């Protein structure tokens, strides 16, 4: 599923947005484009992975490339909102493919706090530091401003789901990753290492302080019963008036209690271990072992003894 958003109320300072849904992981991927120069960024791309066969394929990322190629866009950078725990990033694949096709090195970008996340999970999974240090080409400082063609963009720190989480504001559009979802889903979980329900609340209210017409593009959707299709875009006003967790008047104390109770019922993401090991490497494969294999490790439950 994909769509193109070029509605009449957009200004020259706003991007054209293509949203591409990956059904297997419930993930939204984006291509945001300066309509004047056709310069573009790719946001949170997905690499397909089957944990049973341990095979990768590139269907979702190739849909992004098709949009880029069909429209003659020139990709300036690949933006990651955070180290995802529920899908593997296609950033490295896209960087390699775009480099091969266009002869350029498209930088992979993420928030500056990624170093602490890489160290945490590098040690957890016993990954040599040289496999993830330097994996990202650009690390944004909070509120750092950059250009996409003629458009002005800004990296906005939105901690809570993870401590390194960044959003990207481009004109009147803000790509928020796993901060806030469609109104009938609510907010993102906050039970990962370094996560904080209080920070989720604060980050969402940072977003809600933007003008009511600002468009919010979420990183996921999981349509509940009664809603037929995934939704990528809402407005600040819609979120403030309808979000099931964050409707106007909800106190931080009430939100935190509700968020923690909800998180206690959630299972770990299906691809968590594979995703974290790949994503701290910006989607690069592990180095080969002495036997010539590339390995991802899966922790075992040790509540049994014999």
- What is the total tally of β strands? 16
Would you identify the CATH architecture? 4-Layer Sandwich
The CATH class designation is Alpha Beta
* CATH homologous superfamily assignment: Ribonuclease Z/Hydroxyacylglutathione hydrolase-like
Number of separate helices: 7
Stretches where pLDDT is under 50 for at least 5 consecutive residues are: none
Please describe the biggest sheet, giving its number of strands, its sense, and whether it closes into a barrel: 7 strands, mixed
Give a verbal description of the structure.
One of its GO terms (molecular function) is metal ion binding. Keywords: Metal-binding. It holds the Pfam family Lactamase_B. Residues 26-220 form the Metallo-beta-lactamase domain. With 306 residues, the protein is α+β, with helices and mostly antiparallel strands. It has a single domain (6-279), classed as Ribonuclease Z/Hydroxyacylglutathione hydrolase-like (Metallo-beta-lactamase, Chain A, 4-Layer Sandwich), CATH 3.60.15.10. The protein has seven helices and 16 strands. The strands form three sheets. It has a seven-stranded mixed β-sheet with strand order 1-2-3-4-7-9-10, covered by helices on one side. A six-stranded mixed β-sheet has the order 11-12-13-14-15-16. It is globular, with a radius of gyration of 19 Å. It starts with a strand and ends in a 27-residue tail after the last helix. The model has no long low-confidence stretch (mean pLDDT 93).
